[in-house]
Amino acid sequence: MKRIFALILSVFLMLSPIKAEGISLSAKSAVIVDGISGSVLYGKEENTPLAMASTTKIMTALLLCEQGDLNRTVTVTPEMVRVEGTSMGLYVGLQVTYYDLLYGMLLASGNDAANATAIAVGGSIQSFVAMMNAKAKELGLENTRFATPSGLDGTEHYTTALELALLTRYALKNKDFAAAAGCNGITLEYGGKKHTFVNHNRILREYEGAVGVKTGFTKKAGRCLVTAARKNDGFIIAVTLNDGNDWQDHKAMLDYGFSRLNNQSQRFKENKYYISVLGGEKNRVSAYSNNASFKTVKGQSVTAREYISPYVSAPVKKGEKLGVIEYYCGQEIIEKRYVYSAEDVKAVSCVGAFKRLLVAFLNMLGYI
Fold it and tell me: Domain limits at 283?
């Protein structure tokens, strides 16, 4: 009787969600990451390799975005549509753009869109998979391996919750990827028809500040979900793998993540600069940088490093980039802000330029 009770108890414990640090999750693997610093705020088997289903398309879409020129056209081939599962409705001979494929992949989770991307970008699915694995290696994802561009199950197709979060953090720095991953719905026009897609990611509609990013499901992987949200200068990424209650879990995870951040934002106000001008009608040009705010994990801080030329040559146009400010959390760059010219400075004649150069030189030597 005792053995039967012990067996029932062990089964109950296996099926029950694990509660730790104030949150209760049903996921087999989960992680919460500070999107600014990359710090892990919560983990549950976060380093265990598991199947990832269509969250794979985060990598596929990233590589598509990194090609640039999303207006490029693709003619659909038989191999591109020779795939099962979810679809954006591609057919042989249809012409679509990279932009169409990106949104069809991230909103409708089209496996055909992922295959079309792989062949268009890599030349073949095998070559594109090699690109995916090369990118994973470049990003230091040691426990991630891709076998398909869509996320259909394979023996050599896996990642960890932590590495999927770090991949997502990197991908969201790409503006095209971030725009598509955070798009709630869109109407595309191809094949002479309009096609409307609503993002499968309910968190975009159900959580304030949500900015994406991707859902996934196969029988082997179970329900997989990656979400991210920005709120009050904070940025949180949450990942669950094999989670039957992912929608509720992610709301709790995002709430928990934000609760772990500092109450006070670290703010860098707009700065003003004056930069010497060579050959201009003025000896110097006024410049500025936009303000920046960060809310990081308790105990961490952000520092700024300025890289600004001591002088520029005329002409200078208003809005021209004259320098950059890099913001660091520890040793990692987390954001860049540019220094812009606040005014136009016209060039002067050679004689006038020589005079101004001479004055500037004498001024440097302390003679005037």
Answer: 266-365
Give the E-state strand segments of 45-92 in sequence order.
73-75
232 class by beta-carbon count within 10 Å (0-12 exposed, 13-18 middle, 19+ buried): exposed
Same domain for 303 and 244, yes or no, is no
Last residue of a domain, one of 259, 288, 305: 259
Mean pLDDT of 224-234: 95
212 lies in the same domain as 354 = no
**The model's pTM:** 0.78
Question: CB-hemisphere CA count at 13 Å for 195?
Answer: 20
In terms of Cβ atoms closer than 10 Å to its own Cβ (0-12, 13-18, 19+), residue 153 is middle
Q: How far is C-alpha 11 from the chain's CA centre? A: 39
Structure-token pair, residue 15 = 């099926």
42, 238 in Cβ contact below 8 A?
no
Q: What's the gap between Cα 7 and its chain centre?
A: 45
Residues acting as catalytic residues: 54, 57, 109
Q: Say yes or no: 243 and 279 in one domain.
A: no
Does 318 score more than 50 pLDDT? yes
Least confident of 215-219, 223-227, 259-263: 259-263
Average pLDDT, the chain: 89
